[in-house]
Description:
- By secondary structure, the protein is an alpha+beta fold.
- It has helices spanning 2-9, 20-29, 96-102, 107-112, 115-118, 133-141, 143-146, 185-188, 210-226, 253-260, 325-331, 346-361, 369-377, 397-400, 407-422, 433-442, 469-481; strands at residues 35-38, 76-79, 82-85, 90-93, 152-161, 173-180, 195-200, 229-233, 238-242, 244-251, 280-281, 288-289, 403-405, 451-452, 458-459.
- The longest helix has 17 residues, at 210-226.
Amino acid sequence: MLLELLKEVLPEGEALPKSFYETKKIIRDLALHYDKIDACPNDCMLYWKEASNDSECRTCGTSRWKTIEGNSDEQITHSSNREKKVPAKILRHFPLKLRLQRLYMSTKTASFMTWHYENRTKDDILRHHVDSTAWQTFDYLHQWFSMEPRNVRLGLASDGFNPFRTMSIAHSTWLVVLIPYNLPPWMCMKQPYIMLSLLISGPSSPGNDIDVYLQPLIEELKELWESGLQTYDASRQETFQMHAAVLWTISDFPAYANLSGWSTKGKLACLSCNKDTCFLRLKYGRKFSYMDHRRFLEGNHKFRSDKYSFYGSKEKRSAPIPLSGRQVLDQLENINITFGKKQDTGAKKQGKRGKKMVHEENPLEEKSSDSAAEEKEKPPKEHNWKKKSIFFSLPYWEALLRHNLDVMHIEKNVCDSVIGTLLNIEGKTKDSVKARLDLKEMGLRRTLHPVTTARNKTYLPPACFTMSPKEKEILCSILKNVKVPDGYFSNIS
C-alpha cells in the first residue's frame, strides 16, 4: 500500500519497485540483507555448514522445528499450497564483508577511513582510539597490518534488550554490533556507521552460550585477517586488499562474563586481577565485597597509610600484574565445556524454589558450624574460567585479550546508588542495617555502628551524608531544574 501511494505522489513513481518482495531484492543488491541461520532453542548449536540439513540437535536431541498442540513432531504452516517447517529459533547474521566494502564506495567516507593516519593531531594526548596503548601495541606486533592505513580496526559490543518496551514481559533479544574506529571521533560512534552484525532472538539471554552464535562472525573475521578482501577505494580510484581486526569488546558486567569466559560472580570476580582478587564475604549483607583497592594507588599516596578508614591496616602491596595471553591459555588448558542449556526436571526446580523460600524467610540467619566447617574444607579456587572464549580462535587475540566495561552502565549504577543513599530511598539506599552491622563486624567507622536502645530497638547514628527533609527538597529541586547539553543527561526521574 505504501509503494502504491508513493507511485501516485512522486513524479517518477513508476521507477519504484512494485512489491515488497522486489524491494527486498534491491536491498540485497545494496549489501544490506541478512542471512537466517536456524539454531537449537537450547543454544547448543547452529544448523549451518555440515549440520545445515539436520532435523534435531546433536547435543540435546531437541527438534529443530517448532511444536504445537496436537502435533508433537513439527509445526507446519500452509503457504502457497506448500508445506513449510517453522524453525524453533533463528539467528540473523548480517554479512560483515559487504558492509566494510561499502565504507569505501563513497569518496567522502573513504577519505575519512584514513583520518587516523593522515589527519589526526599527533601530540600524545588521548583524543581517539588510535592514541591508546592497545592500538599502538597492536600496530607494533603486526606491522604488516599497520602499513596499510585503510585496514579496518573494529570494536565489538553486545547487550540484550526487551523489544516489547515493558518490564512485565521477561524477554531478552541480544544483538552484536561492530564499530569502525578508522573514522574520526565525531563519526565512528554515530548511528550510520555502527554496524549490526548478529541478532539473537529471545526469549532468554544466550549467556555463556553466546559463542555458539558468534561462529559466523568469527569465521568472517578470520578470513578478513588471513586473506583479506579485494576492495575498491573510491577516493583514490584504486583497488586494494582490505584486512580487518577486532581490537577489543565493550559490554556491561554480565555480558563481560559471556564474552570473556571469566565468571564475574563469586570470590574471583575480576579478570584483570585474576587469582589475586581481594575479596571478603560480608556476614550480614551476604555478598562478596572486593576490598584493598589501595593497591592501585601510587606508593606515596596518603590513603595507603590510613588505618582508620580502610580496614584497620596499612597497604604496602603493589597492584597485581595482568596476565598475558599465554598465561591465560595455560589456565584454560583443561577447560572443556559443552554448550547448551540443561533442562531441569520438575523435582530440581521445586528443590530450588524451596531453598529460595528458606533463604528469604531467614535473611539474617547465620550458617551452622557444620556448614561453615564444610566451606573451609573446600579447596580454594584457582581461577574463575567457565570456558575458552571463541575470540581465542582469532590469530591475534592472544596478544590482545581486551575486554572493556561500558562506562555508561557504570556511571548510571553509581549515580543511582549515590542518589538512593543521599535521599534514603527504601530499597535503593546502600546505608542499610546490614551494612552498618558489617561495619561493626569489621571494626570500621565506630561512630556509625548500630546502637540498641533501652526499648530493644536498633538506632542508626546519622552519617556525614545524612540529609534532613529540607535538604532533600533542595537536592530534588536542583535535579529537576538543572539544564545540560542535549544528549548529555538521562531522565533523572
